[in-house]
Amino acid sequence: MAADRHFRAEEFLALYSRYRLDDLIAYETRRAEQSRRRQVRSQFLLLGSLMLVVVSYLLGNLDRGLVKIWVVTGAGFASVALALGTGMIAFGLGRRADIHRSAARSLNRMRTRKPGSTASAAEVGQWVWQTEAIISSAISDVDAVPGQLPQVPADQRLG
Question: Which of 31, 108, 117, 120 has a CA 20 to 30 Å removed from the CA of 15?
């Protein structure tokens, strides 16, 4: 009977690792990369908009006949830059990438801390609970309002 219980714990851990943990690590890694790419793309668009503002104002200084058009054009590009910057802050793209990257690292650490095949049901349950808590924490952190990130107590942080 005891050997059967250990076999079931080993089987459960293998299935959980394969179908849940590996999928979660892949998902968090993919989301971190997507958020990072969105952040870089937004930063390039913001930089491009700001450069167009400068070019518009320079052209306005060079071509006095069309100065009003160049000033309005520059103001339009400045509005675009402001909208992009505000959107980057509102969506917290850099913060999202960091949260997903951190969750993937924590899940990888949990994989190395997986209980052995002779673990008790309580040990397996504790390990699964800690693994799921990482995902719950990542989800609530991503959903949090930027600038109001929840503070995780020091005793609950994973290295």
Answer: 31
CB 124 within 8 A of CB 9: yes
Report residue 96 as tokens.
């999202």
* Sign (positive or negative) of CA dihedral 5, 9, 14, 20: positive
pLDDT, tens only, 40-51? 999 999 999 999
Listing DSSP states for 93-152 in one string gives HHHHHHHHHHHHHHHHHHHHT---TT--HHHHHHHHHHHHHHHHHHHHHHHSPTT-PPPP
Task: Give the start-to-end residue ranges of the domains of the chain.
Answer: 2-108+118-140
C-alpha distances in Å from residue 64, one per residue of 23, 74, 147: 61, 15, 45
As a whole number of angstroms, the distance between CA 29 and CA 22 comes to 11
> Do residues 70 and 59 lie in contact, with contact meaning Cβ atoms separated by under 8 Å?
yes
Q: Which residues contact 78 (CB under 8 A, 6 or more apart)?
A: 49, 53
**pTM (predicted TM-score):** 0.72
CA 98 → CA 21, 31, 116, 123, distances in Å? 19, 10, 31, 30
Which amino acid, one-letter code, is at 134? Answer: I
Note whether 129 and 68 are within 8 A (CB): no
